[in-house]
Amino acid sequence: MEENKDLDDFIRRSVNEVGSENPSLNFTNLVMSKIKADTKRSSVFIYKPLFSKTTWFAIIAMVMAIFGSVIFGQHEQETTWLSVIQLNKLTSFNLFGNMPNFPVSSTFVYGILAVTIFIWVQIFILKKHFYKSYSFE
Questions:
Q1: Could you read off the pLDDT of 34-63 as tens digits, one per residue?
Q2: Residue 101 phi/psi, 5° resolution?
Q3: pTM to 2 decimals?
Q4: Structural domain that includes position 123
């Protein structure tokens, strides 16, 4: 208890010796003008898209060209990708012997494959973007 009293007396004497400083006459106005100038200079949020407009147009053009080729093109193939890698055997696989055989067209399989690839690419691009935007360390 005595230590606290001695410390309190020491602090009181120190403050009395140093005294208090008085700010200048227009201190408040100077501080407020600096705050206003700083808020005008800095913007809180600047929107920057992940893909530019030209990139979006290029992506849309490629997708439309692929769909146009699939829909309007006349493709006659003797061998397909599925027969080369022998994935067509998966459609005739019967686990219990009573399961129906589901015919799967090659266009459907290519579409699912393309969507899967696009999703993975998007995940990696977004991961890279967010890693740059917010430094997770």
A1: 888 777 665 566 778 888 899 999 999 999
A2: -90, 115
A3: 0.29
A4: 53-133
114 contact partners, CB below 8 Å, separation of at least 6: 66
**Domain for residue 63, yes or no?**
yes
Nearest to 70 by CA among 102, 106, 116, 104: 106
Give the angle subtended at the CA of 118 by the CAs of 114 and 122, to the nearest 5°: 175
Following DSSP, what letter does each residue of 3-50 receive, concatenated?
HHHHHHHHHHHHHHHH------TTHHHHHHHHHHHHHHH--S-----S
Question: What Å distances lie between residue 129 and 24, 49, 67, CA to CA?
Answer: 48, 10, 29
The answer to whether residue 44 is domain-embedded is no
